[in-house]
Amino acid sequence: MAYSDKVIDHYNNPRNVGALPKEDPNVGTGLVGAPECGDVMKLQIKVNEESGVIEDAKFKTFGCGSAIASSSLATEWVKGKTLAEALAIKNTDIVKELSLPPVKIHCSVLAEDAIKAAIHDWKKKNGHQG
Amino acid sequence: MVKLPIYMDNHATTPLDPRVLDSMLPYFRERFGNAASRNHKFGWEAEQAVENARKEIAALIGADHREIVLTSGATESDNLAVKGAAWMYREKGDHIITCVTEHKAILDTCKHLEKDGFRVTFLPVDNKGLVDLDDLRNAITDKTILISIMAANNEVGVIQDIKEIGKIARERGVLFHTDAVQAAGKIPFNVNEMNVDIASLTAHKIYGPKGVGALYVRRRNPRVLLTPLIDGGGHERGMRSGTLNVPGIVGFGKAAQVAREELVKESAEMFRLRERLRTTLERELDEVYINGHLEKRLPGNLNMSFAYVEGESLLMGINDIAVSSGSACTSASLEPSYVLKALGVGEDLAHTSIRFGIGRFNTEEEVDYVAGRVVEVVRRLRELSPLYEMAKEGIDLKSVHWATEA
After folding, report:
1. Pick the catalytic residue: A107, A109, A118, A119?
2. What is the pLDDT of residue B335?
3. What is the least distance, in Å, from the CA of B349 to any CA of chain A?
4. Could you say which of B225, B329, B387, B397 is catalytic?
5. Is residue B403 in a domain?
6. Of B63, B64, B79, B116, most Cβ neighbours within 10 A?
């Protein structure tokens, strides 16, 4: 299967690889997927208390090149966005940006789930409902 | 410097040996005759070439040349063996025994026969990939007409105890077919010493051309008959009609001759290179696991899981090396390898497996390059892997509740 140039670029130069301190109240962590399914994404966001803007994001991914690229792109996109704006990111946007083929759409779905899970975790920590 | 890309997927197919190509060329050019043409030189030449090749193919497996039925390849050979025996002997019985790690050409053929009213026992394998001989003995009934167990597996390279299986089959009066596609020409394989009645072979796994295979069909003690799949001009003792692929068959013969003459030396070299690759990877990386029995294994095969690194992403990182993966992402079915599953390899580790197939034309320099690249990419991807991070933190990944609908 041929990969798009953007997938290859993210695979070779993944953005924002790493970890943020899980215990930090301003950090939200999303862990989605399962090893048995061949994809696990961990996406973390650091939210500015005052502005509610995501000021940092990190990821680590176990998965194919498209999964790595989807999560790398997700961290790029959420940075500088408010939580509401980040929640509006759709997996189809990722599919389009990375030119993912149909068999790799689940990678983009997982990346969207990872963003939502990280935001959910932050909200839970900070006493927000839902 | 090594020449890139490196081909190390010799279980999938092998490059054509230049000696084989040279032997074939005249049969594409001036000697283009039909081997069935009985009344002119073109036909005689072609027939002579086919008979010489048939002798070489027979010699590779210790058979008589009259026992070789030429086919289009291993899938046809497997189909002819299993369906041909099932239909020929169905009045004697309706039961077939095979094993879960067989090639799809056997498994799907058996499933087809189940729909036609035959009963099939799919024997399990142990965690090293071996069939339990007591399981086999217990599975045989007075309705069993065929046992089909492969000699060496195409994914994990595991070599079954063909000699013992042949003995059991002979004692119980059941025909024994083996898919010897990966074994013949790579390890000693002799149909008489091993009591094999039917055996599938193909040229392109032994540095011959694609599109030509053979089925060994025993002629005496016992005399095996098969119902043909393809009817027509009555070629190949009526078991496989169709004009013979003369250049392909000539190439198959040459490939068989070279394989027979060089087997001892070549298998020792394959083993040396395989062990060099294995020991380097085991020394440089933690948490790598060999899939399948280490000793009862084809000399050129290494199937290894690199925990916490998904197979397709590893292949992407070593894209100047041709190997294959048991990961779901590399297959059309989105299911990880059924062979690894049968060995009890968890799906998590199956997703991280790579099959290296070392062949005749691989060099020590190439093996060292491959080992170096794999180590480098596995380390890089583990830095990227949340599972590796969690494992290093001491989290038991099996105890994690993974948020998945699947």
Report:
1. A107
2. 74
3. 8
4. B329
5. no
6. B63
State the total domains in chain B. Answer: 2
pLDDT digits (tens, 9 = 90+) for B149-158: 999 999 999 9
Residue B382 lies in a domain: yes
Identify the CATH number of the domain in which residue A61 sits: 3.90.1010.10
- Domain boundary (B259, B290, B311) is at B259
The answer on pLDDT for B336 being more than 90 is no
**A110: in domain:** yes
A 10 A CB-CB count for B73 gives 21
In this prediction, residue B327 has a pLDDT band, given cuts at 50, 70 and 90, of: confident
* B185-244: pLDDT as tens digits: 999 999 999 999 999 999 999 999 999 999 999 999 999 999 999 999 888 998 999 999
Rounded to 5 degrees, φ, ψ at A90 are -110, 150
The tokens for B374 are 């794999």
The residue annotated as part of the active site, out of A8, A19, A34, A37, is A37
A34: DSSP letter:
E
Please give the average per-residue pLDDT across A17-31, as a whole number: 95
Contact B313 A40 (CB under 8 A): no
| Mean pLDDT in residue range B61-90 | 98
Q: Is residue B117 part of a domain?
A: yes
Q: Which domain holds residue B300?
A: 6-11+263-396
Q: What confidence tens digit (pLDDT) does each residue in A95-119 have?
A: 999 999 998 999 999 999 999 999 9
- B39 and B161 in a single domain? The answer is yes
Position A31 in a domain: yes
Q: Least CB-CB distance to A33: which of B346, B388, B404?
A: B404
Give the H or E element holding residue B256: helix B246-284
Burial class (CB in 10 A: 0-12, 13-18, 19+), B331: middle
Is B99 an active-site residue?
no
User: Are B385 and A103 within 8 A, CB to CB?
Assistant: no
**Looking at this predicted complex, what is its ipTM?**
0.93
Whether B381 and B309 have beta carbons less than 8 Å apart is answered as yes
CA dihedral B347, B351, B357, B362 (to 10 degrees): -160
Neighbours of B40 (CB within 10 A): 10
Question: Using beta carbons and an 8 Å cutoff, which residues of A are at the interface with B?
Answer: 3, 8, 11, 14, 17, 19, 31-42, 60-65, 67-68, 103, 117
Cβ contacts of residue A34 below 8 Å, gap of 6+?
A40, B402, B403, B404, B406
Q: Among B259, B282, B303, which residue terminates a domain?
A: B259
pLDDT at residue number B343: 96
On whether residue A130 sits in a domain, the answer given is: no
Cβ within 8 Å of residue B3, ≥6 positions away: none
Gap from A51 CA to chain B (nearest CA, Å): 29
Residues paired with residue B178 on neighbouring β-strands, in sequence order: B199
Cβ neighbours of B1 (radius 10 Å): 5
- Spatial CB neighbours of B53, under 8 Å, sequence gap ≥ 6: B249, B250, B252, B253, B254, B256
